[in-house]
Design brief:
- The chain has helices spanning about 50-65, 100-105, 110-130, 190-205, 215-225, 235-240, 255-270, 285-290, 305-310, 355-365, 370-380, 380-395, 400-410, 415-425, 430-440, 455-470, 475-485, 490-500, 505-515, 520-535, 535-550, 555-565, 570-580, 585-595, 600-615, 615-630, 635-645, 650-660, 665-685, 690-715, and strands at about 10, 15-25, 25-35, 35-45, 75-80, 85-90, 130-135, 140-145, 150, 160.
- By secondary structure, it is α+β, with helices and mostly antiparallel strands.
- The strands form three sheets. It has a six-stranded antiparallel sheet, with helices on one face. A two-stranded antiparallel sheet has the order 7-10.
Length: about 725
């Protein structure tokens, strides 16, 4: 803490200001006291008091924190947004930020690291459940407090249905920990998963996982490069890698990440066997891949061979397959497409407290819930018991929370059971957590009327996941099937993916369809991928339309490109135009390609340049083709293929090497020929080598390396 400055306030809303904790872009944070309670008070600085953005951020943070109650999220105590100097008071968390901890003490130990991971993803799950996306998860926004790790600063959070849509290019968040979605305009809950993973990687290695010294270089690296995970343990790398998938639909959910982190903690403590690594959901779309063609590139020094390569028009098809994403909140869709609904659960029959005073205090999020509810709780009122436990839980007093939730749970109150499970998770008491999870999962809904059906579904889902980690898959499927039947979309998605991986088509389609109909983003995208995998073009497009009509700009681009390959240029143009209006680069590429190919060459070329200059490889490839084939400008074509080679693009490297030879730059051509061989060998090591598309290029590159390049320069 730093001492106050001359113009700092002495008091705000009855809080006595003791000193400065820090300063941000718009505000100053003070340490304050009111009686025995300490708070961190964020105040807008004088020079920003009239700035709408500063006031809006503080108001957003106050609103978000008032909705959230989670032991891993800093709690709001009080606020005054209408005064001369608006402020909010949050609980004072005594401890360093993750950023300071790593800077001054080095990376976290493995168990502490997984504990942090469990805390962060639990906070994300809590926020996402009520439509809140943090958008700025980074080491300086995590405090390693005495009472636990806390996520803070929701100033730029997205609140579903309220927050403005950003203007394209108006990015918020800290670049080194941003997700690819941060550089678009539509928030997605999975952006927090990516940022949390980047933050955890920093906590494990003490440095960035991306290349670059400025925002532009970092943005390119985030969107194009594989993360540098050197320095992470094997367990950490297996946990982190799938969370850093470029496409949000390919990433595991925050809930899956939370459960996986808990599994690793138990493994490291010697309680269970090593958990299965998280899996990404990337699936190549046959509708696109069946139409892509990599033209063989010969570097044998025969001019006719190079000419046949450089003037083959089939090479215009993009080689990088777009992947699929989905909007977190489906909107109304036309009657021609299936309607996506949120969990169709039975209405909550839950009772109110027998004490009106207790009920009012709890509903109003008052500060005296325990005091007001204790009399009726002690008298055995189940709702009051739950309220008391919930208040202790929100204040990270897990021992007292356990006491009261246990009282309710023993009387079959599912509300209390549900939170007792989370309490034991916070207390790292996996034995009791697993015992009560099973009890809750085995409770008949008819035995209690104090909780909605979704709590039973949650418990059954949790029990299923616990059993999967223990390797009891058959038993897990029973619980997960019940959870899915009760309306839990995560359970349905897991079942669908499980059966998909077993190649059980009937069950895969059954559960993925259910998950999609329940509104699961994972389910929708897994269904799209699987339908494409099995060649069901109608089903693929049906759910692509659902996702695109829901407002997902990435899937607008995917839909556009599928129409483009089917030569339905009117539909391709429609969806590309819509996707481009949201700033989607794939849509911009498709619109440029359609426009160019329909004869409006200059207009199309400008759109392609726009997409290419923002890093879209399909647009870069298309421009290379235009200069190479239509304009016969090999020097300009080489500039664009060089960009692909710099991205380690296999076909782009092949073309660039060939073009260099045609332009008389033999030595450079040999250098990139060697790089082509390296890329091919690396693909074999990673299991991404496609022999049908790459074998001929590799054979010819090897012949060239061993022949001409060795003869002229002494190496391949």
């Amino acid at each position: 803490m730093e001492p106050k400055k001359a113009n700092d306030p002495d008091e705000l809303g009855g809080w006595r200001i003791n000193g400065r904790l820090g300063e941000g872009g718009f505000g100053t944070v003070f340490l304050a006291e009111k009686g025995a309670q300490k708070a961190a008070i964020k105040v807008i600085r004088k020079e920003f008091v009239e700035a709408d953005e500063a006031r809006n951020r503080l108001a957003t943070e106050a609103e978000v924190l008032s909705k959230l109650s989670d032991p891993s999220i800093g709690k709001i105590l009080e606020s005054d947004l209408s005064g001369e100097f608006p402020w909010i008071a949050t609980e004072f968390i005594n401890g360093p930020t993750l950023d300071d901890k790593v800077k001054y003490e080095g990376p976290l130990e493995e168990i502490a690291w997984f504990n942090l991971a469990a805390n962060i993803f639990h906070a994300i799950v809590t926020a996402n459940e009520i439509g809140i996306i943090h958008k700025d998860i980074k080491p300086s926004n995590i405090i390693l407090g005495e009472t636990g790790n806390k996520l803070i600063d929701f100033g730029i959070a997205h609140i579903s249905g309220q927050t403005r849509t950003a203007i394209f290019g108006d990015r918020e968040g800290s670049t080194p920990f941003s997700s690819p979605e941060h550089f678009t305009i539509r928030p997605n809950p999975k952006m927090d998963v990516f940022s949390a993973a980047a933050t955890l990687a920093y906590a494990a290695k003490g440095g960035s996982i991306w290349k670059g010294d400025n925002d532009l270089q970092l943005m390119r690296s985030i969107n194009e490069d594989s993360p540098n995970l050197e320095g992470l343990s094997e367990n950490q790398e297996k946990f982190i890698f799938p969370l850093l998938e470029k496409n949000p639909s390919d990433r595991p959910t925050a809930l899956e990440a939370h459960q996986s982190a808990l599994g690793y903690i138990e493994f490291l403590l010697g309680r269970t066997k090593q958990p299965r690594p998280l899996k990404s959901r990337r699936r190549t779309m046959k509708v696109i891949s069946s139409r892509k063609t990599l033209v063989s590139v010969s570097l044998i020094l025969v001019i006719s061979v190079f000419s046949s390569l450089l003037y083959d028009r089939n090479s215009t098809i993009p080689t990088k397959v777009p992947t699929i994403s989905a909007s977190p909140k489906p909107l109304d869709t036309p009657s021609t497409t299936p309607t996506v609904t949120k969990d169709p659960l039975s209405p909550q029959i839950g009772k109110t407290s027998s004490s009106r005073e207790c009920e009012t205090e709890y509903e109003n999020k008052g500060r005296n819930v325990v005091k007001k509810c204790l009399p009726s709780a002690n008298a055995g009122d189940l709702t009051s018991i739950f309220y008391v436990g919930r208040e202790y839980f929100a204040n990270s007093n897990f021992k007292d929370a356990e006491k009261w939730f246990l009282k309710g749970a023993k009387k079959n109150d599912l509300n209390s059971m549900r939170y007792l499970i989370d309490t034991y998770t916070q207390l790292s008491n996996t034995t009791e957590r697993d015992r009560w999870t099973k009890t809750c999962a085995d409770t008949s809904y008819a035995q209690t009327d104090t909780a909605p059906l979704k709590d039973v579904a949650y418990c059954k889902m949790m029990q299923g996941f616990i059993l999967t980690r223990a390797g009891a898959t058959k038993e897990a499927i029973m619980y997960l099937s019940d959870a899915a039947d009760y309306g839990n979309s995560d359970a349905a998605a897991w079942l669908g993916i499980h059966y998909r991986d077993l190649e059980d088509k009937a069950n895969a389609l059954k559960w993925l369809t259910k998950a999609a109909e329940l509104g699961s983003t994972t389910g929708i995208n897994a269904l799209i991928g699987y339908a494409d995998q099995i060649g069901d073009k109608e089903l693929t497009r049906k759910w692509l339309l659902v996702s695109a009509n829901s407002g997902n700009q990435v899937n607008m681009g995917v839909l556009a490109i599928t129409y483009f390959y089917d030569k339905d240029f009117a539909a391709a143009k429609k969806w590309a135009t819509q996707g481009m209006s949201f700033g989607d680069l794939l849509s911009t590429y498709v619109l440029g390609a359609v426009t160019y190919d329909s004869g409006q060459k200059e207009e199309g070329k400008q759109l392609l340049l726009k997409a290419a200059n923002k890093g879209n490889t399909d647009a870069i490839r298309k421009l290379g083709t235009i200069y190479r084939l239509d304009e016969k400008n090999l020097e300009e074509a080489a500039k664009w293929y060089e960009k692909l080679a710099a991205r380690n693009d296999f076909s782009g490297t092949a073309f660039y090497s060939a073009l260099l030879f045609m332009l008389g730059k033999d030595k450079e051509s040999c250098t990139y020929n060697a790089k082509l061989l390296e890329l091919g060998n690396r693909a074999k090591e990673k299991g991404t080598y496609d022999s049908s598309l790459m074998d001929k290029d590799m054979e010819r590159a090897k012949t060239t390396a061993d022949g001409w390049c060795f003869k002229m320069y002494g190496s391949g």
